[in-house]
C-alpha cells in the first residue's frame, strides 16, 4: 500500500515492512527500467526454448518474467529496515528478470550444458557465485543461476528444473510463504518455538521432493549446495499444525486469485520467493537446524484440526518434545 507521502507499507504476511517515500521512488524507478528491457530478454529466452523443443525443453511462466513491483518492494524493505542502503540492494539484486527452463530428467544435464553454451555465445556469463546446484537439498531441488551481459548491462536469473521438480516447487509455495514471513514469530513470540515451526515447514516441503528423480550427471552443474538439515525429532503435532496453516494460506491465495480474475493467478509470486531464499547466504534460523536422526515424517490421512479445535504445541501443552533447537 502506498500512503499519501509516497511511502510503501507491506500488507498481509508482509505487514511491518516499509519503505520511505525516497526509498520507494528508487525501487519504483529501478523496476520501470527493467520493464523497458523485458521484451528483448523474453525474445532471447523463447529462442532458446525453441532450439530445445525436440528434446522436451519448456520455458515455464514467461508471463511472470518480470518480478512484480510489490515483490521487489518487499524484498528490498526486508534488508533496508536493517540499515542496508537501498541503492546497494538494487545493485545487488539479480532477479528482476527471471526465467525457468524445464527438461526431462534424462535430457536435463546435457540440455542445461547446451543452454550454457548458447548464452555464452550471446555474450552472457554466469555471475560469480550465482550457480547454486541444490539437487541434494531436501527442501528445494534444482539449479539456480544468474547471467549478465557486461556490455549491455543486462542481468537475469535462470532456473533449471525437471517437470517433477518444478511441480514440487510450485506445490510448496504456501509452505515457503509461511517460512519467509514473520507469521510464526508473531503468533508465538517464542524464538525456540518459532524454530520448531520453521523446521516443520522443511519436513513438509521435503515430502513433495521425496519422489523427484535426480538427473544423471547433475553433479557437473554449478556449486553443489545443501542448505537445510531436516530435524526428525520434532513433535508430530507441530508438523500437523503447519500442514493446517499451509491449507489455510492456500485457501486464502485461491480466494484472492478467484477475486482477481482475469488477472494473474496467485502463483505469480512463487519464483521470486524461492529465489529470495536461495540468494540469502547469511546465517538463518533454518541453517541452524540440527542434522537428521531418523526417517522423514510421513504424511497422514487424518484431517488436520481447525483453529480452535486443538491447542498448539508449545502454548497450551508446554514446549515441543524432542531436541532443543
Describe the structure.
- This protein has 325 residues and is an alpha+beta fold.
- It is built from 11 helices and 9 strands.
- The chain has helices at residues 21-36, 38-51, 69-80, 86-92, 108-121, 163-171, 173-180, 183-188, 191-209, 236-260, 270-279; strands at residues 8-9, 18-19, 58-60, 98-102, 125-126, 132-133, 143-149, 154-161, 223-224.
- Strands 3, 4, 5, 6, 7, 8 and 9 form a 7-stranded mixed β-sheet that branches.
- A hairpin with a 4-residue loop joins strand 7 and strand 8.
- Helix 1 (21-36) crosses helix 3 (69-80), helix 7 (173-180) runs antiparallel to helix 9 and helix 7 crosses helix 10 (236-260).
- The two termini are 36 Å apart.
Write the layout of secondary structure elements.
Blueprint: E1 8-9, E2 18-19, H1 21-36, H2 38-51, E3 58-60, H3 69-80, H4 86-92, E4 98-102, H5 108-121, E5 125-126, E6 132-133, E7 143-149, E8 154-161, H6 163-171, H7 173-180, H8 183-188, H9 191-209, E9 223-224, H10 236-260, H11 270-279
Q: Helix tally?
A: 11
Poorly predicted ranges (pLDDT <50, ≥5 residues)?
264-312, 314-325
Nearest-angstrom radius of gyration? 20 Å
Biggest sheet descriptor: 7 strands, mixed
Beta-strand proportion:
5-15%
Structural class: alpha+beta
Annotation, overall tally of beta strands: 9
N- to C-terminal distance: 36 Å
Shape call: globular
Question: SSE order, as H and E?
Answer: EEHHEHHEHEEEEHHHHEHH
pLDDT averaged over residues:
83
What portion of residues is helical?
A: 40-55%
Amino acid at each position: 500500500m502506498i500512503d499519501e507521502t509516497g511511502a510503501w507499507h507491506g500488507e498481509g504476511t508482509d505487514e511491518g515492512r516499509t519503505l520511505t517515500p525516497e526509498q520507494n521512488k528508487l525501487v519504483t524507478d529501478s523496476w520501470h527500467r527493467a520493464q523497458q528491457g523485458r521484451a528483448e530478454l523474453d525474445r532471447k529466452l523463447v529462442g532458446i526454448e525453441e532450439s530445445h523443443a525436440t528434446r522436451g525443453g519448456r520455458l515455464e511462466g514467461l508471463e511472470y518474467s518480470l518480478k512484480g513491483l510489490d515483490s521487489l518492494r518487499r524484498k528490498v524493505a526486508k534488508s533496508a529496515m536493517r540499515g542496508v542502503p537501498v541503492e546497494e540492494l538494487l545493485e545487488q539484486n539479480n532477479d528482476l528478470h527471471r526465467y525457468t527452463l524445464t527438461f526431462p530428467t534424462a535430457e536435463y544435464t546435457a540440455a542445461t550444458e547446451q543452454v550454457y553454451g548458447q548464452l555464452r555465445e550471446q555474450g552472457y556469463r554466469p555471475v560469480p557465485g550465482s550457480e547454486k546446484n541444490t539437487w541434494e537439498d531436501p527442501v528445494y531441488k534444482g539449479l539456480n543461476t544468474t547471467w549478465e551481459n557486461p556490455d549491455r548491462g543486462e542481468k537475469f536469473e535462470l532456473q533449471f528444473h525437471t517437470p517433477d521438480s518444478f511441480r514440487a516447487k510450485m506445490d510448496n509455495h504456501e509452505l515457503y510463504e509461511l517460512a519467509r514471513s514473520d507469521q510464526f514469530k508473531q503468533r508465538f513470540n517464542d524464538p525456540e518455538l518459532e524454530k520448531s515451526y520453521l523446521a516443520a515447514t522443511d519436513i513438509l516441503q521435503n515430502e513433495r521432493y521425496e519422489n523427484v528423480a535426480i538427473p544423471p550427471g547433475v553433479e557437473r552443474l554449478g556449486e553443489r549446495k545443501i542448505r537445510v538439515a531436516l530435524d526428525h525429532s520434532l513433535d508430530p503435532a507441530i508438523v500437523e499444525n503447519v500442514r493446517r496453516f499451509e491449507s489455510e494460506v492456500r485457501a486464502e491465495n485461491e480466494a484472492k486469485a478467484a477475486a482477481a480474475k482475469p488477472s494473474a493467478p496467485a502463483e505469480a509470486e512463487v519464483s521470486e520467493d524461492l529465489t529470495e531464499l536461495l540468494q540469502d547466504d547469511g546465517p538463518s534460523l533454518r541453517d541452524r537446524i540440527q542434522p537428521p536422526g531418523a526417517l522423514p515424517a510421513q504424511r497422514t490421512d487424518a484431517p488436520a484440526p481447525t483453529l480452535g479445535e486443538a491447542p498448539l504445541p508449545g502454548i497450551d501443552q508446554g514446549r515441543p518434545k524432542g531436541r532443543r533447537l
